[in-house]
What we know:
Blueprint: H1 4-8, H2 13-16, H3 19-22, H4 48-58, E1 62-63, H5 75-86, H6 99-113, E2 123-127, H7 128-140, E3 146-151, H8 155-163, E4 167-172, E5 174-176, E6 179-181, H9 184-190, E7 195-201, H10 213-226, E8 229-233, E9 259-264, E10 276-280, H11 283-296, H12 302-314, H13 316-339, E11 343-345, E12 352-356, H14 358-364, H15 369-379, E13 382-383, E14 400-404, H16 409-423
Parallel strand pairs: 1-13, 3-4, 3-7, 7-8, 8-9
Antiparallel strand pairs: 2-10, 5-6, 9-10, 11-12, 12-14
The structure holds glutamine (GLN).
Glutamine binds next to loops.
Amino acid sequence: xxxxxxxxxxxxxxxxxxxxxxxxxxxxxxxxxxxxxxxxxxxxxxxxxxxxxxxxxxxxxxxxxxxxxxxxxxxxxxxxxxxxxxxxxxxxxxxxxxxxxxxxxxxxxxxxxxxxxxxxxxxxxxxxxxxxxxxxxxxxxxxxxxxxxxxxxxxxxxxxxxxxxxxxxxxxxxxxxxxxxxxxxxxxxxxxxxxxxxxxxxxxxxxxxxxxxxxxxxxxxxxxxxxxxxxxxxxxxxxxxxxxxxxxxxxxxxxxxxxxxxxxxxxxxxxxxxxxxxxxxxxxxxxxxxxxxxxxxxxxxxxxxxxxxxxxxxxxxxxxxxxxxxxxxxxxxxxxxxxxxxxxxxxxxxxxxxxxxxxxxxxxxxxxxxxxxxxxxxxxxxxxxxxxxxxxxxxxxxxxxxxxxxxxxxxxxxxxxxxxxxxxx
Length: 425
Ligand code: GLN
């Protein structure tokens, strides 16, 4: 037993105060400590989005790099969230998400993706789709499992594979005469007895590829044959062009029980900063997702969930207006890039244009996507993303550059003016 008298003994000052306060004044040339980063994150550095937005801000460049709209989402959802804060919805929301939002997601999923689901057992509300992806990997994949990714990939996928201790296998999406596609034989050979999951993203960031029925059916057949789960990132589900429509792999025969559909409010309602997303999966897979989600964030801010429910229920027409806007910005930017010498691959979906930059960089005496994207903010006042950051084999992406067109038309026009001044002889 501890002697209470001893506890009350006065301690020497040096023992009580934090060491910094007791040390003699530090010389100003002290070398700061090296960043301490766990090994699993060392390969990934800082995300390219943060890096390029930083460069854009430094040079006051038009930011066509990080994919976020420079305008706000519908007012009605903002007001619903404000009212929720005012009316004291400010304590923890339930782990799985507020029932009102899960009902709205279920209705949305049935109406737009022909995918009915049970709000009680099959939906988990997450901090954006990024957390849905993390919870899905951590909750459903074991160390040593293999996971198939398509490259180019959204950068968090690769980090989530690492966090789960899994082994990634890659299939490359390549340009073809009709935009981007993948080789069915390459995909077929990548599946094996160790494969636990395949992550697909359609509409695809950064290429704009929208998987058609033949591609989805091939993936579904391979999943069924090898007993594999499909993780399907569908955040650009409503942003498709030229009469192409999105289909969820969960609706392919036999896939409902082996698919996790992940999506969010951010792209569809221009609210990327709200970070409200969800995972839809059969109850046996939702169990794993919730097992991880409860320890990642536990739950998502309640007022934003109430705002999100209002958007999904009542702002549906505004999505059509948004798509009409993106049809214009996509066309105007695509035509301008083409006229400047870029080889443009018009996207079928999402809000990015991938272009082969090599004719332009050659003129400038530059080589890679990184050269170009470092040069552009400073010399043209426009920022873009070097897509090699999305490849396991960076050389596969070094000839491309990615421009975001999720901006006001004035912003696109300004970027085009600046690119013309800097790039035309
Ligand atoms: N998804 C967006 C993009 O691809 C950005 C995401 C982020 O900044 N983390 O540009």
